[in-house]
Amino acid sequence: MVQKKSLDNRSPGFRVPVIPRAPRSARKRSLHKNTADGRNICAIELLACLAGKLLQETESSASNIASEGNDQLSLPKNALQDQFQGEDKSLKSEGQGSCEDGLFILEQASEDNQHKDFLKRSPEVESGALWDRSSVNTNSSCLEKENSDDKSVIISKSGFAVSGDLNSDKLVAVKEQVPDETFLKDSMADCAETPCFPNAFSSRQNIGMVLDRKDDDENFPRFYKSSSTKLKPYKPSSHIDNGRIRKLSTSKNTKVAPLRKDTEPSKSGTGRKVSNQKRRPFYSRERYQQHGFLQKRRKVFDGSCIVTSDGVLSSESDSTSHQIGVNGETMVSSLGLGDRASFEAKNPQVKISIKSFKIPELLIDVPETATVGSLKRTIMEAVTTILGGGLHVGVLLRGKKIHDDNRTLLQTGISSKENLDTLGFILESSLTQSHPSSITPQDSTCTLPCHIPEQLKGSLDKSVSDSGACDSASNPANLTGMCNDIVDSTHELTVSSNTDNATDKPLSDSRALVPVPEINPEPLAIVPTNQKGKHPELSHRRIRRPFSVSEVEALVQAVEQLGTGRWRDVKLRAFENADHRTYVDLKDKWKTLVHTASIAPQQRRGEPVPQDLLDRVLSAHSYWSQHQSKQNGKASGRMAQTPPKMIKANAVPENVITDIGG
DNA sequence: TTTAGGG
DNA sequence: CCCTAAA
Q1: What's the CA A564/C1' B3 distance, rounded, in angstroms?
Q2: Which of A82, A310, A477, A521 has the most C-beta neighbours closer than 10 Å?
């Protein structure tokens, strides 16, 4: 996108990068929502768990569909209804709500076989199509109402959105009514050989990504409280009109994006406001959240098949080992009830089943005119970037992080049943400078292991606070609803270069990503469904968006030519279309660039900036320091006389320090 | 609004 | 990135 401005032909221009959200900048804002949320999560997961069991039960009795790796668990309508009754009801009704409630309905008229087949070996697996499908399937299995010819699946964007009435306790109770483990075990045995899911889902950690929109604080509460309505992904017109949106969006840079494609570039403005008025790339926020999306799937584990709802529940068939279900950020485990004796006798093994990992929050910025296809790719890029950017796993036991990597599981207590229940894993971004803040044990707001790591909280908070920024973009429907065929050729959203570095390795893992929910092929008008403006004061800090190398390049070039002190011009010149970059940002960036260039490479952080660029930074910096850019610029109107780069390069020998990096 | 700097 | 004093 962006980069319309020709940078003198010399600059390759830059593209607005898709930057994975760096947890590092997690701002701890109010945590008010967290507590409640955390509870709900548990409730949700519990319910999901229940559903899983029920499902299992139903399934087994109804003959095994396991014939060929069908990952789609179908759950007879009745079963669900009966079991959930009230909850179900509320759920459904909620599901019918507008997208604001985070629920979508998926009309899916396909046969299991198709899906199975698809999942098994679809060439699209790599393209992201899998995401769509898997999402569908995954979700389908959660709450699926099966009809003779078509199914309606209620999907929760942000997890199992059961009614707000449910609380942990209640759920716990419910859970206990579920068929015993043995039963489950048996029923699951049938599908033991079934490749429950594509490779990605079985042997390696599953990564679930929840694309969700958190428009504003209201969302959380609303999400649970729900009330009414019919289902539809979104209503293009039922909400605020564009004008309204725009108005609302102007307050802060990171607000809602206008739908319209608009108009011509505003001639003068460059500041945030102006930017907003101009075409503003819709600001999307995909965040994974701890709501724990309802993803139930089967897993084959040494002949046993575990059905879990995000790790809430897992059963083991192998008495000599433990199986631990991992769930997203936090994972829950349950130790089989098998006899311990034989277990200890042998060389005990701790089996850990990671149901899914949620990837850190993603922030994607794409133009309104971007196609769904490109959006998909963008997301994929972002995801791979995150994965490749250096993720490491953190192990939590009883809410505490285990730092000693050399200790054995036995030593750390991970092998003991009691502890397994409190075992958790968390993905942490290496990009995050933040020291893995140890999770506070007190976090366990709920009875069950539903620890919410600080980081998570942070991001949650952030999302909440950033609320305004999100919007439609995250509307799942927009993300995956469309088919890939539309693979467009518009490169508007080419992902930034900074993804390059990391794309390699993770690529292969991309399959493991389990995006989530979504769907509903509908026009993707990006409709900011929420009207914010609620708590302006909560207004947020803009999300951190590291400059990509190309951006830096563009900046450097512009400064070389314009000099420092003319940020507005720089902005206009090189970042006119980068609405999220204000001249202040550019100025700040330059500031940091200068600093970066002055320090040893080892001290630098973040995506490394090519040394040559840094050299240019120093050159330009020193040059303009002596040449009062302002004066020159104004006076000559053109700085031809004071050619930046080249001249400096030669004139300023200091630059030669290049390799040293300062 | 834009700069310039400190936070 | 944010916040602001100044210009």
Answers
A1: 10
A2: A310
- Which tokens is A353 given? 């089943």
Q: At A592, which amino acid appears?
A: T
SS3 A192: coil
| Residue–nucleotide distance: A260 CA to C7 C1' (Å) | 36
Instruction: Say which residues have a Cβ less than 8 Å from residue A459's Cβ, sequence separation at least 6.
Output: A21, A23, A26, A287, A360, A361
Q: How far, in Å, CA of A206 to CA of A363, rounded?
A: 21
Q: Examine the pLDDT at A390 and tell me if it is beyond 50.
A: yes
Which nucleotide is closest to the Cα of A540 by its C1'?
Answer: C2
Q: A50 with A175: CB under 8 angstroms?
A: yes
Q: Please, what is the angle between helix A611-626 and helix A549-562, to 10°?
A: 20
Q: Which H or E run includes A353?
A: strand A349-358
Query: Helix or strand or coil: residue A451?
Result: coil
Residue A423 token pair: 């075992």
By the 8 A CB rule, do A302 and A321 touch?
Answer: yes
Say how far apart CA A573 and CA A583 lie, in whole Å: 11
Q: Which long-range contacts (CB under 8 A, 24 or more apart) does A310-313 make?
A: A310/A45, A310/A48, A310/A208, A310/A355, A310/A356, A311/A353, A311/A354, A311/A355, A311/A356, A312/A45, A312/A46, A312/A48, A312/A49, A312/A52, A312/A448, A313/A49, A313/A52, A313/A53
Pair of tokens at residue A185: 């075990």
Would you call A524 helix, strand, or coil by DSSP? Answer: coil
pLDDT of the residue at A461: 31
List bases, strand B, within 7 Å of protein CB.
1-7
Residues with CB under 7 A from strand C: A 253-254, 540-547, 580, 584-585, 588, 591-592
Closest nt by CA–C1' to A274: B1
Q: Give per-residue pLDDT as tens, A344-372.
A: 455 667 777 777 766 666 677 777 788 88
Among all strands, which nt has the closest C1' to A580 (CA)? C1
Residue A269, nucleotide of least CA–C1' distance: B1
Query: To the nearest whole percent, how much of chain A has pLDDT over 70?
Result: 22
User: Among A653, A620, A552, A560, which residue's Cα sits nearest to residue A12?
Assistant: A552
- Tokens for A629? 């850019």
Say how far A583 CA is from B5 C1', in Å: 14
Mean pLDDT of A95-118: 30
Q: Report how far Cα A355 is from the mean position of its chain's Cα atoms.
A: 16
Which nucleotide is closest to the Cα of A544 by its C1'?
C1
Domains of chain A from N-terminus onward = 23-220+289-515 (no CATH), 549-660 (1.10.246.220)
Protein A116 CA to nucleic acid B6 C1', in Å? Answer: 59
- Give Cβ neighbours of residue A95 (< 8 Å, ≥ 6 apart): A101, A103, A104, A105, A154, A155, A156, A161, A231
- Nearest Cα neighbor of A312 from A350, A348, A351, A356 is A356
